[in-house]
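Private note to self, pasted from the team thread so I don't lose it. Backbone tokens:
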């Protein structure tokens, strides 16, 4: 009953829903007949209707591999013979096997080529098999799907169909592009992390339509039926246009109701959604391309060097063939011991020195062909594979916070990493790793905070280098300048006097005037109290109780909000819970043993 009254209040509140500012399918807000490009029709809770044309949509099975059983051999051979050396030795092997112009046997030409190409193809197969294994792990993930009669059961991602009702729980990924129907929150909101889509770690808020808010539990979907008419699959992550037909009413849809595949549900116990785009129709897969066969700059440069070697080989062979043609015309009759016994297969005719020269040119190209280093590609392939193994085991590339090691998905471009000399960053979050620390503040014109920022430390270090100073801990020259040393030592003492305290993520504030309740002795105590309360109240974050420490952790839309809340908590004003109309804060004062909840 209470939840029903709250929902009724929400429906009457246009301020809460911002309905007048939401995007519409048409300019006047009325539903329009979706034309070309907007032909997708989804029957919610009736996936069997999409098994036949014209509503037959792709499955939710995805693959990111470059090859399959049928295409591996032709595509892999094509990739190998894009290399100049391999192509040259292929032609030499064909000549050796089909003519008597080669000075070597056909086996001696074919065997090295087969070994080199086979080894490279084996490496490609190994790396592609790893992609296949990763795809299988994703395709076999389980998620709750409505079966019938209001009963949800686990189902692999790859078997999800358009129109299925899906229940996604906290910290799980969305298996397809879903239309949000309801969530564990009364107003139908949920928090989504889209780091896999756009690299952003801040949470984004999604809201369900008010008409679907009563679908709050499994039983509510027992007789649920609706129809979605929306845009066709496209790669735009930030747009969506469509209509929901429900209870003989039509409601416009916008991107705030769409939960994209590979984004993660955060700070929300569960959500219900209907699959709109599945598999390669989903927006994340529409943005992905087939795994390209990339070639590094070193490999391209190596091809140019081989071209140069080939021209040198051609020049040597051409000079040799000219000399042979001259000798064949004037000297060959005297060289009776070099003339073959079989006159039929004799390719040397003193009466046709031009033909003899051309045929000898082919022989010389094969004879001097080892000027082209066929083993070079093998050596490089082996080195790349070993480099990939070292990258996977590199402890310096291990992320302690997330427990994630480096993973070389392909070894084709290892050497490109060593040629990076400039990194261009597009935003502050990339530079700061989305980590914000509370260092200083100004309250009623009074500045608080003694700790230096990274920028100030960098400036101090540069100043020390300019005047010959050194940080504490660095080797001290015998003729150290006392003036420069004293300034740097003072800066180091200020920034490290509390190093024995455990580090608190998001809070690096140091000032005895505010910490440990000393702020109550300040002359502007009322302003400080108001400042702390504002820090703990003005935000849109969600608290999560850490059972190990007893403190609250905060998931906010931005790292700034999280840093403010952590600072308020450390100052004694701990945000603990929120409702639709209220925010609750636990305030700790030195004169009271227990916190006061307001």
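Design output:
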């Amino acid at each position: 009953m209470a939840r029903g009254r709250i929902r009724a209040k929400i429906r009457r509140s246009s301020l809460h829903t911002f309905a007048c500012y939401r995007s519409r399918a048409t300019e006047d807000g009325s539903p329009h007949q979706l034309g070309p490009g907007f032909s997708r029709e989804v029957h919610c809770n009736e996936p069997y209707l999409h098994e036949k044309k014209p509503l037959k949509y792709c499955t939710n099975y995805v693959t990111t591999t470059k090859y399959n059983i049928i295409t591996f051999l032709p595509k892999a051979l094509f990739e190998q013979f894009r290399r100049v050396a391999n192509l040259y030795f292929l032609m030499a092997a064909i000549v050796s096997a089909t003519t008597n112009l080669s000075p070597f046997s056909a086996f001696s030409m074919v065997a090295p080529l087969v070994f080199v190409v086979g080894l490279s193809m084996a490496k490609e197969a190994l790396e592609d098999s790893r992609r296949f294994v990763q795809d299988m792990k994703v395709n076999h993930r389980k998620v709750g799907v409505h079966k019938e009669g209001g009963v949800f059961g686990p189902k692999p991602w790859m078997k999800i169909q358009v129109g299925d009702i899906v229940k996604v729980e906290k910290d799980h990924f969305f298996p397809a592009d879903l239309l949000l129907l309801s969530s564990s929150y009364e107003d139908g909101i949920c928090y989504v992390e889209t780091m896999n889509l756009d690299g952003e770690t801040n949470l984004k808020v999604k809201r369900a339509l008010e008409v679907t808010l009563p679908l709050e539990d499994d039983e509510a979907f027992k007789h649920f039926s609706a129809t979605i008419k929306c845009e066709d699959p496209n790669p735009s992550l930030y747009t969506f246009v469509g209509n929901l037909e429900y209870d003989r009413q039509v409601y416009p849809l916008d991107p705030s109701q769409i939960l994209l595949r590979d984004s993660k549900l955060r700070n929300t116990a569960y959500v219900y959604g209907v699959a709109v785009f599945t598999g390669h129709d989903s927006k994340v897969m529409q943005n992905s391309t087939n795994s390209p066969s990339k070639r590094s700059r070193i490999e391209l440069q190596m091809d140019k060097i081989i071209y140069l070697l080939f021209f040198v080989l051609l020049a040597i062979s051409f000079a040799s063939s000219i000399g042979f043609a001259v000798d064949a015309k004037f000297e060959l009759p005297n060289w009776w011991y070099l003339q073959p016994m079989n006159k039929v297969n004799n390719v040397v005719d003193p009466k046709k020195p031009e033909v003899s020269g051309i045929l000898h040119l082919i022989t010389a190209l094969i004879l001097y062909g080892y000027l082209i280093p066929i083993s070079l590609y093998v050596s490089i392939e082996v080195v790349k594979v070993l480099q990939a193994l070292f990258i996977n085991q590199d402890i310096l590339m291990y992320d302690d916070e997330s427990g994630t090691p480096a993973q070389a998905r392909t070894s084709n471009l290892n050497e490109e990493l060593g040629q990076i000399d400039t990194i261009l960053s597009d935003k502050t979050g990339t530079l700061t790793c989305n980590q914000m620390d509370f260092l200083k503040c100004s309250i009623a014109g009074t500045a608080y905070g003694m700790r230096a920022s990274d920028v100030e430390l960098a400036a101090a270090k540069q100043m020390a280098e300019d005047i010959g100073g050194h940080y504490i801990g660095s080797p001290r020259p015998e003729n150290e300048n006392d003036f420069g040393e004293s300034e740097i030592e003072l800066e180091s003492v200020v920034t490290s006097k509390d190093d024995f305290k455990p580090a608190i993520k998001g809070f690096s504030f140091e000032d005895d005037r505010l910490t440990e309740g000393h702020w109550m002795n300040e002359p502007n105590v009322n302003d400080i109290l108001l400042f702390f309360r504002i820090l703990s109240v003005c935000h849109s974050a969600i608290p999560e109780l850490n059972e190990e420490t007893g403190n609250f952790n905060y998931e906010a839309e931005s790292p700034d909000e999280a840093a403010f809340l952590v600072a308020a908590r450390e100052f004694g004003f701990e945000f603990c819970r929120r409702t639709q109309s209220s925010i609750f804060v636990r305030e700790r004062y030195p004169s009271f043993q227990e916190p006061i909840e307001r």
